[in-house]
Amino acid sequence: MKKILIFSALALSVLSVNPIAFADPVDQAIVFTCPSATGSSHLLSRFVNYVGGAGTESVTIDSTVETQNVYFRSAVLSPTANIPGSLVTYSNSGTAFDPISGTVSCSYTSSGSLDPFVVSYVGTNLYGANVTNSQPNSITILEHVGLKN
């Protein structure tokens, strides 16, 4: 019993002296915009056995937005997949985020009777991040980057 009291007092004194124990987390918002199936920029393309294209990643740092292209790619398509070379009948149908793998996914459906597909991008250091907003063509993720002093 005496050892438990001594250990508890020691732990409490460390927490009361250490300001980091009570520091607020620092987060940054990252907006991922999915590639488009139609339009003039950031287009998806059908390759032999996958669909891929450039989307964007916009990071806000000290009120400045920095945007860069990131490549989204589908899994290997089945030889029997009903996805044509021209993707003009497809549109964004949703976005998702997996905080365990850091994967951002964009789903697409066709206005015709063609197969749906998903393209994904694995972000850097997004493990454990949270989704704050999700639209059919974009998703906002809050990434934990440190602690305030």
Description:
The chain is mostly beta strands and 149 residues long. It has one domain (22-147). Helices cover 11% and strands 48% of the residues. The chain contains one helix and nine strands; from the N terminus they run αβββββββββ. Strands 1, 2, 3, 4, 5, 6, 7, 8 and 9 form a nine-stranded antiparallel beta sheet that branches. The longest helix is centred in the N-terminal third of the chain and has 16 residues, at 2-17. The radius of gyration is 22 Å and the shape is elongated. It starts with a helix and ends with a strand.
Topology:
Blueprint lengths: L1 H16 L7 E9 L10 E3 L4 E11 L2 E11 L15 E9 L4 E8 L6 E6 L7 E5 L3 E10 L2
Antiparallel strand pairs: 1-3, 1-9, 2-3, 3-4, 4-7, 5-6, 6-7, 8-9
Which characteristics define this entry?
149 residues, single chain, 9 strands, 9-stranded antiparallel sheet, mainly beta
H/E element sequence = HEEEEEEEEE
Total domain count: 1
Specify the number of helices: 1
- Outline the low-pLDDT stretches: none
Mean pLDDT: 85
Shape: elongated
Q: Strand portion, in percent?
A: over 45%
